[in-house]
Amino acid sequence: MKKEDLTFKEKSKEKILKTIKHVLNYIRHNKNKTKVIAGVVAIVICVGVVSIVKLNSKEVLACAKSRNIMLEGETITDIALSGSREIEKGPSKSYGKVVYLTIDDGPSEYTDEIIKILNKNNVKATFFMINSNMQAYPEQVKNIVKNENTAGFHSVSHDIHKLYTSPTAAKNEFDTNQKTFKEITGETSKVIRLPFGSKPYTPRSSYNALMDAGYKLWDWTLDTEDWRSTSPQIIQSVIKHTSDTDDAVLLMHERKQTVAVLDEMIQHFKKEGFEILPIKQSDEQRNYWNGKLFKTEK
Ligand SMILES: [Zn+2]
């Protein structure tokens, strides 16, 4: 508390004591005691009500504090949402609007159609692929590479209960991805995405093992939640959440409803002046751990 606050408090105390003395004197010398006493009672009730209201506002503050503590367990999507809100408050920039289309959980029966839509619009995307799906759809893996999209890895198990059983378990899964990808295409990639993001499930030891192996870990800044949405919901959500941002890493999945709005989504981004880019192997990774999830972070 500041010094000025203390003196102010003391002064107020003195004033209150003086007033009480005056009132008591007045009661003593006044004939119409009942009326005066009623007045005093009314004042006491008022003071009581004011104190209760003040207490309540303190409780609200305490609630807000405990909510901050709860935020420790938030997901990448929570972080991304609150982060993009922070950015929305900042001054708007008129240069370099960029969006990364990232498509998880493939390849699948939809991959070729997705590539067709990307090609039609002359844009590239990043595909984060699961090991068993690479094995099931090797031609689609080749198609991704042939059309100059970025191939990224998305684990073997896609299971947080298996990825973190030891500090190197996740790294080993991505090594397996690497081996499968090399067998199919003869190429390598260092771009990866952890299932469900790198927060809150990933321990630091697992993150460190991935970094030591030279992997580049990408989280996202906007989750389309396409896996549980209809096509109109997906496009509406994307339009809404990118209206005040100039930089987005968009999380999508290889789902029918996503493919159905992909063309419209790309048209929207172009119209709004976004450059649509694939993640490059040489790009600096952007994740929760390195504090580069949002471009404005230093
Ligand atoms: Zn996934």
Automatic annotation (TrEMBL):
InterPro entries: Glyco_hydro/deAcase_b/a-brl, NODB_dom, Polysacc_deacetylase_ArnD
The keyword Repressor belongs to this UniProt entry's keyword annotation: no
Signal peptide (UniProt feature, chain positions): none
A Pfam cross-reference name: Polysacc_deac_1
EC number: 3.5.1.104
NodB homology domain ranges (all copies): 97-277
CDD domains for the chain: CE4_SmPgdA_like (cd10944)
A GO term, aspect molecular function: hydrolase activity
UniProt keyword Membrane, yes or no: yes
Bilayer-crossing regions: 36-55
Alphabetically ordered keywords of this record: Hydrolase, Membrane, Transmembrane, Transmembrane helix
Record-linked PROSITE patterns: NODB
Enzyme class of the recorded protein, top EC level: hydrolase
Protein name: Peptidoglycan-N-acetylglucosamine deacetylase
Organism: Terrisporobacter mayombei
